[in-house]
Write a structure and sequence with these properties.
Blueprint lengths: L2 H4 L7 E3 L8 E3 L9 E4 L12 H6 L2 E7 L4 H4 L6 E5 L2 H12 L8 E6 L4 H14 L4 E4 L3 E4 L2 E5 L7 H13 L4 E5 L2 H5 L10 E4 L15 H9 L7 E5 L8 H4 L4 E6 L6 E8 L4 E7 L2 E7 L4 H17 L3 H9 L8 E2 L8 E4 L4 H12 L6 E5 L9 H12 L2 E4 L9 H12 L5 E4 L3 H11 L5 E5 L6 E4 L2 E4 L2 H17 L1
Parallel strand pairs: 2-3, 3-4, 4-5, 6-10, 6-11, 7-10, 11-12, 12-13, 13-14, 18-22, 19-20, 19-22, 20-21
Antiparallel strand pairs: 1-5, 7-8, 8-9, 14-15, 15-16, 17-18, 23-24
């Protein structure tokens, strides 16, 4: 594609050199640069792409994009290489990538879901409903990328970098996708990953404290404002009006068509006559001018909110109520309130809960229907918001009958230090607990002490098939871990 076409519509650029160039590809990683490529230098949290401009040129870059704050003289870019100066190279990369791939999000209906919790489950619900209705659907989110029912790749982050995102969109267009439902993280909005995306529908599930750290958001206001950017990108939205911040959104965007859904507050779309059991939720909602009963085989009050959001979106699209009901009744989301079948027949649930509110929600949900003990096994991720660690310890101590504090993804932190911070919170309670840093040993202990009337909640990992230690991802699928432990227990029992 001609460089001029790639730059089309991108404001605030300054250029030096030939613009009438054919560009073979775009990259922000100098190692992936090939002959005829455009290199976009991005200053990251740990690495500054401007330091690798020389390598990019050696590898074949014919044009380079730099940030306006960089020292141009120090870069020493050869005159044969076209130089483009942008106000924000992240924003440039997003817009240029969209142009390069032919603005693919204009060629299907794009649905964006943001919020602290519930994004993954809600996107899966929408996907299942649309597929049940015979639509061709793509999904991009925390767990994986799907195209027309096929899992294409596991995900490294909730929302991909802009370049990869536009590539995915282009692939989906090639496969005839009609709808794409996507989790939109606060980071992706803040760092311009979704700039250049044309959203048809957006939704806000809820808002609570999370993602506050040096590498994410400095404070809650920054976190909230980042999420609200999504509503500036689309005129048709859906919000949880029971949520303190969600309730304020319709007034913030008076020119938009925003539908409120909830349980407690008056809104456009409410759930009534709610039943919550150990295996499902059941509620009544008005769909297509009729009160319909909806059943979802995922326990917990939060499931009602997620289902309401999915119904609102799909109702707007025009999906029949019966199709929605049938799809929701069979929905299964990896790592979300997922029960692990095992030979000991002990109730073992895997859930992605990794924030104070999500941990509280899942423990309260299982506490309400469990005849025996709730055994909580959890840790906290390293290189993330440290403030939530004692809070989560206190929550588990108050709700669970027994807590085993363990390691999650320590990343570059010392796992024992993380565990100690969690322990400070649980010490404020009268909850019984112990510390077992090794997660396999922690799960083993939980299984050994449990019986069929108890429930074990393995929180934090969810769908993740790895454990990240010292920056290295090691295979760690809790479904496999659980059954390996039980096989060893059974083998010992026979000996």
């Amino acid at each position: 594609m001609n460089l001029k076409n790639i730059l089309d519509g991108i404001e605030g650029l300054k250029a030096k050199g030939e613009l009438d160039l054919e560009i073979e590809g775009i990259e922000s990683n100098s190692k992936k640069i090939e002959k005829g490529f455009l290199f976009v230098a991005i200053k990251g949290f740990t690495v500054d792409g401007h330091e690798f401009i020389g390598s990019a040129i050696e590898n074949g870059a014919v044009a380079v994009v730099v940030d306006e704050l960089c020292d141009l003289k120090a870069l020493k870019i050869p005159s044969k290489v076209t130089l483009i100066v942008a106000k924000d190279t992240r924003e440039f990369l997003a817009l240029a990538s969209a142009n390069f791939y032919g603005n693919p999000s204009e060629k299907f209906k794009l649905i964006g879901i943001t919020g602290t919790k519930g994004k993954t489950t809600t996107t899966f619900m929408i996907k299942e409903i649309l597929e049940k209705a015979g639509k061709k659907v793509g999904l991009i989110g925390t767990i994986a990328t799907y195209i027309n029912g096929r899992k294409i790749a596991d995900s490294d982050r909730t929302t991909p970098e802009s370049l990869e995102l536009q590539r995915m969109f282009a692939d989906m267009v090639k496969e005839g996708v009609e709808y794409v439902v996507m989790e939109v993280s606060s980071q992706s909005l803040k760092l311009h990953r979704v700039d250049g995306c044309h959203f048809d529908y957006v939704a806000f599930t809820n808002f609570s404290e999370d993602h506050i750290s040096e590498k994410e958001h400095p404070n809650m206001e920054d976190y909230l404002q980042s999420k609200l950017k999504l509503f500036k990108m689309c005129k048709t939205g859906f919000v949880n009006i029971d949520d303190l911040q969600g309730n304020k959104i319709p007034a913030m965007f008076p020119d938009s068509d925003i539908t409120g859904y909830g349980i407690d507050n008056f809104g456009n779309f409410l759930a009534k006559d709610i039943t919550i059991t150990n295996s499902y939720v059941d509620f009544k909602a008005k769909i297509a001018d009729r009160n319909e009963r909806v059943k979802v085989d995922i326990p917990g009050r939060f499931t009602v909110y997620n289902a309401l959001c999915a119904i609102c979106v799909c109702r707007k699209i025009g999906i029949e109520s019966q199709v929605m009901k049938e799809a929701l009744e069979k929905i299964k989301v990896p790592g979300r309130s997922e029960m692990v079948e095992n030979k000991l027949e002990i109730p073992i649930m895997i859930d992605y809960a990794h924030s104070p509110e999500s941990l509280q929600n899942i423990l309260q949900a299982v506490k309400s229907y469990t005849r025996g003990r709730v055994i909580s096994v959890f840790g906290c991720g390293g290189d993330r918001d440290t403030r939530k660690r004692p809070i989560m310890g206190e929550i588990s101590g108050k709700i669970a009958d027994y807590t085993i504090i363990t390691s999650d993804n320590p990343r570059t932190e010392n796992p024992e230090s993380i565990v100690n911070e969690i322990e400070e919170g649980i010490k404020k309670t009268k909850g019984k607990y112990e510390v077992i840093v090794d997660r396999v040993e922690a799960i083993t202990k939980a299984i050994q002490m449990a019986n069929k009337t108890d429930i074990i909640v393995l929180a934090g990992k969810g769908h993740e098939p790895y454990q990240e230690i010292n920056g290295v991802k090691h295979p760690f699928d809790e479904r496999i871990i659980v059954n390996d432990i039980i096989s060893k227990i059974n083998k010992k029992g026979k000996n």
